[in-house]
Amino acid sequence: MDFDTVVMKFGGSSVADPEKVKHVAQRLVAARERGLRVVGTVSAMGRTTDGLIDLAHQVSPHPDGRELDMLLSTGERIACALVAMAIHDLGQEAVSLTGSQAGILTDSVHTKAKIREIRAERVREALDGGKIVLVAGFQGFSRETMDVTTLGRGGTDATAVALAAALGAACEIYSDVPGVFTADPRIVPGARKLPAISYEEMLEMSASGAKVLMLRAVELARNHGVRIHARSTFSDEEGTWVQEGDEMEQPIVSAVTHSENDVVFTLTGIPDRPGVAAMIFDVVAAAQVNVDTIIQNVVHGNAEMSFSVPAEDVPATRGALESTRAELGPFAVEENHDLGKVSLIGAGMRSHPGVAARMFRTLAENGINLQMISTSPIKISCMIARGEIPAAVRALHDAFELESAPVAE
Amino acid sequence: MDFDTVVMKFGGSSVADPEKVKHVAQRLVAARERGLRVVGTVSAMGRTTDGLIDLAHQVSPHPDGRELDMLLSTGERIACALVAMAIHDLGQEAVSLTGSQAGILTDSVHTKAKIREIRAERVREALDGGKIVLVAGFQGFSRETMDVTTLGRGGTDATAVALAAALGAACEIYSDVPGVFTADPRIVPGARKLPAISYEEMLEMSASGAKVLMLRAVELARNHGVRIHARSTFSDEEGTWVQEGDEMEQPIVSAVTHSENDVVFTLTGIPDRPGVAAMIFDVVAAAQVNVDTIIQNVVHGNAEMSFSVPAEDVPATRGALESTRAELGPFAVEENHDLGKVSLIGAGMRSHPGVAARMFRTLAENGINLQMISTSPIKISCMIARGEIPAAVRALHDAFELESAPVAE
């Protein structure tokens, strides 16, 4: 399928200094000069967002969410305005738009808003006028409260995919890695770049630690049929296409991913009656925490339950759990910060039940102990000691022969 | 006159770091706790705006005005959001608004927009709800282009006065000086803080170098009858009230001001025919340059003309002059960067013609040579060598006995 419009997304490291800003401008101009209608969406420069968060915490221990969004949304505006200036100097017209000017309407959940709708009239008009349009990533606007919102982690990727869906455009996501690999090349030097991967596999990879694309952007892309081209800011080589899977040619296992960002909560002494788990996870979800693996066990009529959450959600999780004590009575909470997760991803494993056994055997042969296991039709994840992650990734990459090109079975 | 609403303006040095942000929050909360409806308007933290301008120039030699406004408007938003966070921690409710959210409508002249109208519904609603409202200074919104604009130098003072006019509020302008003085206390240690000064005198003082209040804010205040209280961020002492003058009690001379920021252009060889001066100053005004003193002379049928402009307007002035050459033929342009201006201000001098003579005599007795003179009914300015400014200010402060409280004549 050919597109006449492209949305090109550049992350914070791609615009970290004035020289890089000019480089991004050149890439956008080159696409425009190939005859495309071009939308650029850009994250805040380098560590700007972290700097603003630090500043907020120096002023207030628990910054108000609405005000935090007002603060954080400035980072992307700065980056977009600078890219637009640099484009002018290259002889093309450009205009930068805030999230609200670009019609990115969200709900009103500050710091983690979800995109509801894109009213892209102003973007379209500017494209019709031959301009390159820069849209500030990571932010939107709530019509209920008339306030600026931010989209949380992965927000700029979500902005790019949602804009591509609204404009019927291709979506190119640029970063400092040249695509999606069979494993992290820093751990497995022989890891191979995948030419294409299905939405489903990419979802599992993003959920289990691959950083190249954010989960919510892949979800959005799948739901709206947007093809994503994940590629390098610094070269013209083809990256990885994320698209509808072609079941006939699916390899059994596509990639090994890992994550060192999980904290495992274990609750003991909670009553074993119906509805307790539902209640706990309702409260945790209401705190906007993304729970990953959950396992439950009943010991002497009391339930024991473990689940993992991203490290940054630990304070929210603690608060949510405390709020259930009135109803659930005394229970103990333990946190384990020393675990990591290694996962095998592959749409082909759906029809190959032996994959899990082979994974567990490989880990056992390398002396690696399993703490928790969770599976989906196309993924198997194991929580293991964090220090053993590199060895586990290398062993699995070898065992499933990911270094050589895949053979469909 | 008593007000139930107050607009409190804090400059960039008053919010330069997190501790100062918290201090500003305390001042706003204290006013709220005295029962007032409180609007705060805040400049960008410390040198933020200069940093953003530097960044723009690293990316582009001549940054696009629209994009520069998108960039620069972020500084005040950051400061306002931080102050709002700090107010929450002090137990009051607060909400920060961008210029466009606060209804500050401007023309479309980027980087130097003028306020046209304030639609303060959202500010009023928030005040009605008991909230302290922070309004990002220095910025507005053009309805024609739907773009963010910035107000240029003195923009945040203008925001404060315009809001006070729209809300029928008092206007307090806080800075690191405790009010308006008879001369710069760094040059004249015995300079005296004025308890009150008329709009007219303050206009002349701001125009001739006093930095405590910006010219446009004083103009706005006079046009809308807003009383300004210029006072210190760091103490509760009374500052200086800028208000309608009471002619009966006017001292002859109120203050000596000076400026080291002027560059004098001298044009020689321009044709001496009607309309030439009008043409030159039309073109210069179209470049948004604020011309101060102008003098003209005819020598051998050619006009010689000199005028002074603020140093930052020199490039725009040069460009404007070049553009008249096609019509005016060859003329020579000289620039003098070594001059400064010393001025006497006083509504009382209107009826005392001897003031100018006494000023010139005082300067002559101190061996100071006059390069250009300009006068208004309440001001006399002399351009002199920049190095002689401190001596001139001290001599005039002495000669007009400004150290002692004024006696009306």
From TrEMBL, chains A, B:
GO terms for molecular function: aspartate kinase activity; ATP binding. ATP binds at K9, F10, G11, G12, R186, K211, V212. Substrate binds at T49, E76. Pathway: Amino-acid biosynthesis; L-lysine biosynthesis via DAP pathway; (S)-tetrahydrodipicolinate from L-aspartate: step 1/4; Amino-acid biosynthesis; L-methionine biosynthesis via de novo pathway; L-homoserine from L-aspartate: step 1/3; Amino-acid biosynthesis; L-threonine biosynthesis; L-threonine from L-aspartate: step 1/5. It comes from the Bacteria. GO terms for biological process: diaminopimelate biosynthetic process; homoserine biosynthetic process; lysine biosynthetic process via diaminopimelate; threonine biosynthetic process. Its EC number is 2.7.2.4. One of its GO terms (cellular component) is cytosol. CDD domains: AAK_AKii-LysC-BS (cd04261), ACT_AK-LysC-DapG-like_2 (cd04923), ACT_AKii-LysC-BS-like_1 (cd04913). It catalyses: L-aspartate + ATP = 4-phospho-L-aspartate + ADP. Catalyzes the phosphorylation of the beta-carboxyl group of aspartic acid with ATP to yield 4-phospho-L-aspartate, which is involved in the branched biosynthetic pathway leading to the biosynthesis of amino acids threonine, isoleucine and methionine. Catalyzes the phosphorylation of the beta-carboxyl group of aspartic acid with ATP to yield 4-phospho-L-aspartate, which is involved in the branched biosynthetic pathway leading to the biosynthesis of amino acids lysine, threonine, isoleucine and methionine. Tetramer consisting of 2 isoforms Alpha (catalytic and regulation) and of a homodimer of 2 isoforms Beta (regulation). This is Aspartokinase. It comes from Gaiella occulta. The lineage of its organism: Bacteria, Bacillati, Actinomycetota, Thermoleophilia, Gaiellales.
